[in-house]
Structures are given as structure tokens and as C-alpha cells.
Amino acid sequence: MLFVPIGYTFGSDMFEMNQVMGGSTYGAGTFAADGSRKPTELELQQAFHQGLNNYCRTKSSGGFDQE
Predict the structure, then answer these.
(1) Residue 27: phi, psi to the nearest 5?
(2) Which of 22, 27, 43, 54 could form a disulfide bond with 39, CB atoms 3.0-4.6 angstroms apart?
């Protein structure tokens, strides 16, 4: 399995200081000690960005069958 950290590709939203936000340059994440906290919209956007980033890099490296 190929793992590609997102680095700083998520832009300035990675440094949002107005709300608690999980995640880092290694990937998306959520702070939820007991499971009662749900991911914020910003955390979901970062997770989507990571998935899209991994898909694009894997596709460009020939990791998917291209018919």
C-alpha cells in the first residue's frame, strides 16, 4: 500500500486557530477522546483532500489499471 503524506498541500486551513482541529502534515485526523466529538467540516475537508491527493498520485504512478 502506498502512503503519501499530505505535507502542506492543504494550504492555510492547516493552521486554523479558531477551532480545535486534528490532523497534521502526515494526514487527516480528529480529536475525540471518548468518541463524543464529531469531526468538524474543516477536518472532513482535510480528509477528503488527503484521499484525493493519494488517488491522484497513485493514478499518475500507474498504480491503477488503466483500460
Answers:
(1) 160, 175
(2) 43
In this predicted structure, the answer to whether residue 66 has a pLDDT above a threshold of 70 is: no
Would you give the end-to-end CA distance of the chain in angstroms? 21
Q: Confirm if 54 and 2 have CB atoms less than 8 A apart.
A: yes
Length of the chain: 67
Encode pLDDT of 43-56 as tens digits: 888 889 888 888 88
Query: Which distant-in-sequence residues (6+ apart) come within 8 Å of 51 by Cβ?
Result: none
3-state secondary structure of 53: helix
Above 70 in pLDDT, residue 64? no
User: Is the entire prediction scored with pTM above 0.85?
Assistant: no
Report the distance separating Cα 63 and Cα 40, nearest Å.
Answer: 31
Q: What pLDDT is recorded for position 2?
A: 63
